[in-house]
Amino acid sequence: MAAAPGTVATRVLYLVAFAFVTGSAWSAAHRRPTEQRRPWTLVAGALTVWLVGDVLAEAARLVVGHDLTSPEPSDVLWLLGYPLLAGGVLLMARRRAPGQLRAGVLDGLTLVTAAGIVITQTVVLPEVRGAGLHLSTVVPSLYPLGDVALLATALFLVLSPGRRGTATRLLVAALGLTLVVDLGFALPAVTSLVDNGRLDGLLLVANALLVASALHPGGSELTTQVPGRAGLHPTRVLFLGIALLTAPSITLATGPAPLVERASLLAATVATSALVLTRFTGAVRAQERAQEQLTVQAAHDSLTGAVNRGTLTTRIGQATRTATLGPALLYVDLDDFKSVNDTWGHEAGDAVLVETVRRLQATVRSTDTVSRLGGDEFAVLLADEATTEGVTALASRVVDALAEPVPFGAESVQVAASVGVAMPLPRAALDVLDSETDVEHLLRRADHAMYEAKRTGRGRWVLAT
């Protein structure tokens, strides 16, 4: 990030332009809504410390009459800008895809490890072999590593759910150009051909692109949460595979190396492999959790959480085949539920349905099954060894529980329920019917009893004959 060499006027012009870009960054951050301001504040902070580093370097150059050799005090400020900028990009990713940062961090660490291997082999080690291991050889290599970390966070941002418009492309272009220029500063072959002033000019362009992404009208796409879940994108798989092969490929390409270098490559291979395995393990577990969630959703009512009709019929069939006495069933229907929706609205109706399931589950045993059959109809499948006295007593408690008013805001909604009770058929009768027919038979008997309860007064239970 050194200031442009050349005439004093040229260097001053560079600093003035950089100050304008930095001021624009702060202005763009201030214009953002409060909830989107923090990431752009960190971006502006990164440009600020880079600008201060350039000003200090120029001041030192004017005092001593020539450029300072690396490392110099300004390196501290220049390097500090990388975690600030990376933090800003990570906050964007966190706002854009909340709860999905862990996978992106693992991908970023994997890429940084692989890039660190390449940069160490191509930039650091050649300098160390020639001049020894000193700060003057290590510090310049930290800049490309910082840029790789920035690109890793940008990669996660780009591959997360959301729109990838002009603002996103400007941000990625800014970080990519910064990486290219910093690699140019670190490679003697480049600095011998290209004047440092031109490289500084390219850095100024990169910083301007960064600010342009903040000022762009579509810049909110970088911090706006959208529905969706970031999976293991094919591009991520490709990058992870390349990262996993980096150390072995360098080992094969460079041939025999000193023990220290071989040990570092082995450690890098172990670290990369561990990160990739952790990443894929997390992806597999996420897939398993998603599958479990789909299974639960397929078996349960989305509003109340009770099992649905399909699951109930399956459990009736299982109980018919395995229970000693066969299953008993309560068929519950709310009385005049339509008036609740008409009078109070569908939100009140949903509250009544949810409360109905809660009260049913609180009234029956934990081994019994509460199901929402659809609309305002429910069923309770009782476990084995249910006697007529016990089932009818339970039906009476259900009627009483559902007759209590349901709180809704500052008011209460009064409902009642009619319950049909179907006791298990004798085993001899079950042997005549197959399980599917018996399931339908039990539901039909309970349904008929429920309608008899409605016909004879509602808010009561009737035992099927």
Question: Could you explain how this protein is built, in words?
Answer:
This protein is α+β, with helices and mostly antiparallel strands and 465 residues long. The chain has two domains: 8-297, Rhopdopsin 7-helix transmembrane proteins (Up-down Bundle); 309-463, Alpha-Beta Plaits (2-Layer Sandwich), CATH 3.30.70.270. It has helices spanning 8-31, 34-64, 73-96, 101-131, 135-159, 166-186, 188-191, 196-215, 234-254, 259-299, 309-322, 337-344, 346-363, 388-403, 427-432, 435-455; strands at residues 328-334, 369-374, 377-382, 406-408, 411-413, 417-422, 461-463. Mean pLDDT is 81; it is low at 1-5.
Question: What descriptive keywords fit this protein?
Answer:
Alpha-Beta Plaits; 7% strand; 5-stranded mixed beta sheet; alpha+beta; single chain; 465 residues; two-stranded antiparallel ribbon; elongated; Rhopdopsin 7-helix transmembrane proteins
